Structures are given as C-alpha cells and as structure tokens.
C-alpha cells in the first residue's frame, strides 16, 4: 500500500517530468521515450541452474552485465594453485577520485 506522502511525491515527480518534457519540446529537442520491457510471466517452477557454462555463455553474460560500459573490461588472472579466470577490470582504476575499488596491499609494499 502506498502512503499519502508517497502519493504526493509520485504526483510531484510526474508533474516535474511533464514540465521538463514540455521544455525539451519548446527548445526543439527530441525526446526518446524509454521502452518498457514486457513483464516476464512468473513461473511456479524454478529454472534449472546450469552447472557448466560454455565460453560463449560466459562471454554473453559478461557483455550483458557490462553493456554500454567502455571503461570496464575483462582481466585474466591466475592463482598460485593453477586456477584461472577473468574478473572485471576498470579503465579508471588508477585515477584518484574516480575508481573506488578496494586496493589490496602486498607484503613488500608495507
């Protein structure tokens, strides 16, 4: 259930959206309406979770998760035990104030 305060906020935001759309129209700026995805029908059965992903499946997942992100790319890693894989890397990793990834200090740097 939506409270009165939430209804007021919703009404205010809709009015602001209408006002901003009108301003865009007045200045000749085309507005691209977002497409609303169709709802996925709920299923009573849970989909089986794949136990093995092909390389193409992994690439498709990565591309879907980081769509439209040119500053994020896969970085290959390998552990001392011989396992390997890919993790997201950030193109802004070494730019102070932009990337806020946690830094891992090595024993030699202390």
């Amino acid at each position: 259930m939506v409270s009165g305060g939430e209804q007021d906020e919703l009404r205010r935001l809709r009015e602001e959206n209408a006002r901003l759309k009108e301003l865009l129209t007045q200045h000749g700026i085309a507005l691209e309406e977002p497409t609303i995805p169709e709802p996925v029908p709920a299923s009573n059965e849970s989909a089986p979770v794949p136990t093995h992903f092909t390389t193409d499946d992994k690439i498709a997942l990565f591309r879907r998760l980081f769509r439209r992100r040119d500053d994020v790319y896969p970085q290959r890693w390998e552990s001392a035990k011989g396992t390997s894989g890919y993790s997201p890397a950030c193109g802004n990793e070494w730019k102070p104030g932009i990337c806020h990834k946690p830094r891992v200090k090595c024993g030699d740097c202390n």
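Residues 6 and 12 are 10 Å apart (CA to CA). The beta strands are 72-78, 84-90.
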